[in-house]
From TrEMBL:
SUPFAM superfamilies, A to Z: ClpP/crotonase (SSF52096)
GO molecular function ontology, one term from the record: catalytic activity
Protein name (database record): Enoyl-CoA hydratase/carnithine racemase
InterPro entries recorded: ClpP/crotonase-like_dom_sf (IPR029045), Enoyl-CoA_hydra/iso (IPR001753)
Length: 260
C-alpha cells in the first residue's frame, strides 16, 4: 500500500508514498486513504493528524491516470445527474473525521490533490511549493477541485488557477499571501513545522478541539454542499471524450508554464 500511517504522542502522520509517481493516487490508494480517515475516527489515542507526501518533489498530483485506465477506469452513470469519482472521499471531512488535520506541502500539489487539501484545517508549505489545476488544459471541467478551493482562496485567485490550467503555477509565497497557506517553512521543513502545530493541538482537550473544528466547518458547509451538488452535470456536459482527454494529457510535457 502506498499510504503510510505513523502514530506517536497523540499525532498520526499520514504519508502519500509514491514519490516515483509524484504521489499520484491509484484507485487502491484512494480507497486506502478513505480507510485511514475512517479508522482515525475511533482511535482515541490520536488527537491531531498531519498529511504529507514523500520525496519532496510533490505533495500529490491527483489521480494516477495511467493506473486508472489500466484498472478499466470507474464505470459512470449514463445520466449527467450523478458521477462516480474515486477521489470524493479521500478527504477527512468527507469521512466525518473531526480530529484536526494539518497538511505539510513540499513541491507540487495539483488537480485531485485539492480534494484532500480543501478538507484539512490549514496548510504549511515552502516558497518552492507549486499549486495548480490542469483540468482545463486536458479538456476537463475543474468542478469539485475549484469548488473546494474556493472555500480557501479569494474568488479571483481560485478562478485564475482553475482557468489557466497547466499554463500557470501558484508559488508557495503567493499561496501564503492570498491565505491558502498559513505558514511558510524552509525547503524540507514543511513536515517539521506542521508537526509543531500538531503537537500544540494534541495537548489541548480533544473534545474542545474537535468541537471547534466542527464549528468552523459548519460556517461554510451549506455553501460548499450546494455548490458541489452542481458538479456532476457540469462535468458530464463540459468534459471532452476520454480519448481526446488522453491525447491532450500525453502532450502535457510539451508546453511551458509560468509561476507567480
Amino acid at each position: 500500500m502506498s499510504i503510510r500511517v505513523a502514530r506517536q504522542d497523540g499525532i498520526a502522520v499520514v504519508t502519500l508514498d509514491r514519490p516515483e509517481k509524484h504521489n499520484a493516487l491509484d484507485l487502491a490508494d484512494a480507497r486506502a486513504l478513505t480507510g485511514v480517515w475512517r479508522d482515525l475516527r475511533t482511535d482515541e489515542s490520536v488527537r491531531a493528524a498531519v498529511v504529507t507526501g514523500a520525496g519532496g518533489r510533490a505533495f500529490c498530483t491527483g489521480i494516477d491516470r495511467a493506473a486508472a485506465e489500466a484498472e478499466d477506469a470507474v464505470p459512470q452513470p449514463h445520466a449527467p445527474f450523478a458521477i462516480e469519482d474515486p477521489l470524493l472521499s479521500i478527504g477527512p471531512k468527507s469521512c466525518d473525521l473531526w480530529v484536526p488535520v494539518v497538511a505539510a506541502v513540499e513541491g507540487m500539489a495539483c488537480g485531485g490533490a485539492f480534494y484532500l487539501l480543501s478538507e484539512v484545517e490549514f496548510l504549511v508549505a515552502t516558497e518552492e511549493s507549486a499549486f495548480f489545476d490542469p483540468h482545463t488544459s486536458y479538456g476537463m471541467v475543474g468542478a469539485y477541485e475549484a469548488m473546494g478551493m474556493a472555500q480557501r482562496m479569494p474568488f479571483g485567485e481560485v478562478a485564475r488557477m482553475a482557468l489557466m490550467g497547466a499554463a500557470e503555477r501558484i508559488s508557495g509565497r503567493r499561496a501564503y499571501e492570498t491565505g491558502l497557506v498559513s505558514e511558510l517553512a524552509p525547503v524540507g521543513g514543511a513536515l517539521a513545522a506542521a508537526l509543531e502545530c500538531a503537537r500544540v493541538l494534541a495537548r489541548h482537550p480533544a473534545t474542545a478541539v474537535q468541537g471547534t473544528v466542527r464549528a468552523v466547518w459548519a460556517a461554510k458547509e451549506a455553501a460548499r454542499n450546494q455548490a458541489m451538488a452542481q458538479a456532476p452535470p457540469l462535468i458530464a456536459l463540459g468534459n471532452l471524450p476520454p480519448r481526446q482527454q488522453a491525447a491532450l494529457f500525453r502532450e502535457r510535457g510539451r508546453g511551458a508554464f509560468r509561476t507567480r
